[in-house]
Amino acid sequence: MCGTCAAEMEKKLHAVIDRHRDTRGALIPILHEAQELYGYLPLEVQRTIAEELETPLAEVYGVVSFYSQFTTTPRGKYRISVCMGTACYVKGAGEILDRLKARLSVDVGECTEDGRYSLDACRCIGACGLAPVVTINDEVFGKLQPDDVDEIIDSYDKKEGQV
Amino acid sequence: MTRTSAEIQKIRERVHEDLMIRLDPKAKPTPEGGRMHIMVCCGTGCTSSGSMKIIEGLEERISGAGLASEVKVVKTGCFGLCAQGPILMIYPDHIMYTLVSPEDVDEIFESHVVKGEPVKRLLAGEEDAEEISNAMESVDFFSRQMRVALRNCGAIDPENIDEYIARDGYRALEKCISEMDPEEVVDLIKASNLRGRGGAGFPTGVKWSFAAAQQSHEKYVCCNADEGDPGAFMDRSVLEGDPHSVIEAMAIAGYAIGSGQGYIYVRAEYPIAVERLSIAIEQAYEYGLLGHDILGKGFDFDLELRLGAGAFVCGEETALMTSVEGKRGEPRPRPPFPAVSGLFQKPTILNNVETYANIPMIVLRGADWFNSIGTEKSKGTKVFAVGGKIKNTGLVEIPMGTTLREIIYDIGGGIPDGKEFKAAQTGGPSGGCIPASKLDTPIDFDNLLELGSMMGSGGLIVMDEDTCMVDLAKFFLEFTVDESCGKCPPCRIGTKRMLEIVTRITEGKGQPDDLEKLETLARNIKAAALCGLGQTAPNPVLSTMRYFRDEYMAHVIDKKCPAGVCKSMLQFIIYADACKSCGICKKNCPTNAITGDKKTGVPYAIDQDKCVKCGVCMEKCPFKAILKNA
User: Which listed CATH number (1.10.3370.10, 3.40.50.11540, 3.40.50.980, 3.40.50.620) goes with B161-370?
Assistant: First the structure.
């Protein structure tokens, strides 16, 4: 990140903190927005939040590490989540996950080297009618067969101008 | 601009007229409402299948033809028949289309909208149905349901408060704050015998009366919209399809217990629900149905939305409140119960989304009406999210006392591909599996507990012969081990030990006394865990051991998985009689475990040491010569 962008980001982070400062139980809403801003929650961001809210960094880190949606490592440009809810599980979500792992050569919780894709197994997203389901950022792919995996990743690769 | 109650009533009457064509096919169209309403489902399911594109397409054609004032496209919440989405419902004709794709828009527009001729191939219901009748009533999936909590889902535009008001919305709140004392409201809910829809089934009115009895100028009303049970999406659908019903009910609860502040704790995994709730709260404030001096009756109530961050334990009431306070969502011992000391250590009530959705109806129709539905100890209806190996995946609302058989076969359409029903799982990771022999038990809170399961929030996953019950128990244990907050050792350590045992059973390394060990552990965890998560975590194991003990025995003693799921006990074998030596399996095997050659006549065989049991060879074999041997 360049110097000016970093300063810009920090300004935005302070604005987020200021907006929530007087709310009771502000920490979680602030972390949500900070993660939206940075894509993840690096230690420096947690430190800024802790200082501004006058809470120990350990407490902030405690909250960050407790909730599965907060992450301290960068995610990919495209965040792939395989739903592992019961409905998806009995309809073969495990196999879909295996195919994605093989195709992207990453394990769950990891990011591809080029930073394009990260892979996660997520909790039920409630789209059980479409099981098994995979989401990529905000897009939902339902009623998947293992063979659909390649097609979907191909379409994203194509979007990036590289097949 | 805030509205007086007379102004709200005016909106109600006017918009009710506009919406009449949705109720009565002979209703006269109004200038504002237009002559035709095309309702497009925009729940999470249908949105993922392209309903937004359908709306865009329809609106483009309609405005292009200058029909925008006559034909309205309405974005609605979930109709429930998620497997058949996207779903379209056209009024006043009462025609329902299923599995609509954006490519169908032109035909629907030209044939139905312009000429008034329904598009036969897209009609809901049996494919060979000649008669085009009132589609919704002629589809078994809908005709056997009773919609109370879901009354507005699919019937109104959830982003338009006027449509909610037109369907008697906010009338219950007005009735409470202008005609009833808070005690009367509490008594009414008590008399209705409404029980919490979130899982345990605690009487809602009793909960309210505890909080109402506390002397404190600061009390809180919370809504648990942290629907974490895998396979459950009832609450999401209510929030997406009818957010105002929850807002109205929370204000009623606030009035009843003497609270001026509410919090809705909703999963961040539900972006559409979060968006619609935010819109609804904003609109309610704008109309003065939230905030200061509601409808000029001197009652104040504020409502805030809080997003979860992916922790299943936050569905537990004390953990949820700790999370709203901005901390790690760990539960704490009760007592003190939240009604005495809850959020910010003040008296608090917490109810689930579906519970709240029932409240306005109870206020308007009375306790007797509610008591007339359901069984002796479980009144009213229950929404189930039916999923898994069933034809009509989706959302159904049925009176308590309906049997599982009716839900699965009559409403759900049975098991696809001619497979055999094996079990239904209710209650998520806290619940259990119900076998075929219990299909005729009427569903209510107490019967499900007796069967070793529980109502839970209403997820109902159907499993067929291809599901291994030991593997399923392992799936749920993995879930609880992962989601255990770590505060109390029985849950943190106990579930982990259970998972280790179940895992070794699925790997063919089970020992004869493993089942006994599991039972002892389960008993101790249930007795000693701090919160509901731990106390119910052994249920999936206990119930599968109770009804499918032979399957466990097969794993432990015979080292076999009868359903052919547990990989380490599987063998893929090529049957020489059926093999035509085409070599496709060998070509596709990712680990080069298959040997054989057509030219030299070496028979094809699988090297079991190299085989990773991926099943690709079986999938690809054109002659079905490769079989799984459990």
Answer: 3.40.50.11540
What is the architecture of the domain spanning B469-556?
A: Up-down Bundle (1.20)
- Closest by CA position to B467, among listed B511, B402, B415: B415
Same structural domain for residues A152 and A84? yes
Are the beta carbons of A63 and B270 separated by less than 8 Å?
A: no
Compute how many other C-beta atoms are within 10 angstroms of the C-beta atom of residue B140: 16
Interface of B with A in 560-589 (CB under 8 A): none
Size of interface A-B (CB pairs under 8 A): 139
Q: Do A127 and B323 touch (CB under 8 A)?
A: no
- Pair B227, B267: CB distance under 8 Å: yes
Q: Which of B326, B388, B428 sits opposite A25 (nearest CB)?
A: B326
So what's the pLDDT on residue A91?
87
Give DSSP secondary structure letters for B116-147: ----GGGBSS-TT------HHHHSHHHHT---
Q: How confident is the model at residue B136 (pLDDT cuts 50, 70, 90)?
A: low
At the topology level, CATH places domain B381-464 in Ubiquitin-like (UB roll) (3.10.20)
Q: How far is B6 from chain A (nearest CA, A)?
A: 35
Listed in sequence order, the residues at least 6 apart from A146 whose beta carbon sits closer than 8 Å to its beta carbon are: A92, A95, A96, A98, A99
Answer whether residue A25 is part of any domain. Answer: yes
Examine the domain organization and report whether A82 and A138 are in the same domain.
Answer: yes
At residue B594, the 3 state secondary structure works out as strand
> Is A53 found in the same domain as A11?
yes
Is A149 in the same domain as A89? yes
Determine the pLDDT at residue B283: 98
Rounded to an integer, the average pLDDT of B58-77 is 96
Cis peptide before B590 (omega within 30 of 0): no
- Tell me the DSSP string of B465-492: TT--HHHHHHHHHHHHHHH--SSSHHHH
Domain with A116, as residue range(s), is 78-159
CB atoms A66 and B269 under 8 Å: no
pLDDT band, residue B135 (cuts 50/70/90): low
**Nearest-5° Cα angle at A143, A139 to A148:** 80
Among the partner-chain residues B45, B325, B485, the one whose CB lies closest to the CB of A127 is B45
Q: Domain check: are A84 and A116 in the same one?
A: yes
Residue A56, classified by CB atoms within 10 Å of its CB into exposed (0-12), middle (13-18) or buried (19+), is: exposed
- Residue B200 tokens, joined: 């345990």
Identify which of A50, A1, A44 has the alpha carbon closest to the alpha carbon of residue A30.
A50
This complex has an ipTM of 0.88
Confidence band for A1, pLDDT divided at 50, 70 and 90: low
How many domains is chain A built from?
A: 2
Assess if residue A21 is contained within a domain: yes
Tens-digit pLDDT profile for residues B585-617:
999 888 899 999 888 889 999 999 888 888 889
Closest listed residue to residue A56, CA positions, set A46, A70, A65: A46
Whether residue A72 lies inside any domain: the answer is: no
- Enter the pTM of the model: 0.92
Residue A126 confidence (pLDDT): 79
pLDDT (0 to 100) of residue B370: 98
Residue A140 sits in a domain whose CATH number is: 3.40.30.10
* Residue A115 dihedral angles phi and psi, to the nearest 5°: 75, 10
Which class is B570-629 in CATH? Answer: alpha beta
Domain end call among A22, A42, A66:
A66
Taking the C-alpha atoms of residue A153 and residue A163, their distance in angstroms, rounded to an integer, is 10
Burial class (CB within 10 angstroms; exposed 0-12, middle 13-18, buried 19+) of B614: buried
Structure tokens at B35: 């002559």
> Maximum distance among all alpha carbons in chain B?
94
Residue A154 lies in a domain: yes
pLDDT computed for residue B405 by the predictor:
95
Give domain limits for chain B. Answer: 35-138, 161-370, 381-464, 469-556, 570-629
